[in-house]
């Protein structure tokens, strides 16, 4: 356990409340998936539970169970949509492990042989590209 409190003002909480726009790919009662605005590869998306959890360390196991099922569903759809050789799924817990947004989230990144991941820079992708990529994944669902 991190011992740190959940921050209601993290960017993913704001996206969940509709205060910040996102390119949604999937939504149900428990989960939201949307395109990463700084994709490391075409089709890079994020899956987040709606329940407030700082990360895997403090998440309710029932929330994790629902979330990971959607991660699998989105990984399959992203692989199909982007005709990728594989799918990289990543999840970070606390700063030492690379976590920068303190709301539990899973990165789902289609990967192809020989294509390196782009850095998670700070350069935001064009909104039209994100919208088109979101539509590709939705069509594969």
In a few lines, what is going on in this structure?
With 141 residues, the chain is an alpha+beta fold. The chain has helices at residues 11-16, 61-81, 127-140, and strands spanning 24-27, 31-35, 45-49, 86-90, 106-111.
Largest sheet: 5 strands, antiparallel
Architecture in CATH? Answer: 2-Layer Sandwich
- What is the number of independent domains? 1
Mean pLDDT: 95
- Annotation field: number of helices: 3
CATH superfamily: HIT-like
What does this structure look like?
This protein is of the alpha+beta class and 141 residues long. It has a single domain, classed as HIT-like (HIT family, subunit A, 2-Layer Sandwich). Helix content is 29%, strand content 18%. Strands 1-2-3-5-4 form a 5-stranded antiparallel β-sheet. Helix 2 (61-81) packs across helix 3. It is globular, with a radius of gyration of 14 Å. The termini are far apart.
Topology:
Layout: H1 11-16, E1 24-27, E2 31-35, E3 45-49, H2 61-81, E4 86-90, E5 106-111, H3 127-140
Antiparallel strand pairs: 1-2, 2-3, 3-5, 4-5
Helix pairs in contact: 2-3
Q: Tags for this entry?
A:
141 residues; alpha+beta; HIT family, subunit A; five-stranded antiparallel sheet; 5 strands; 29% helix; globular
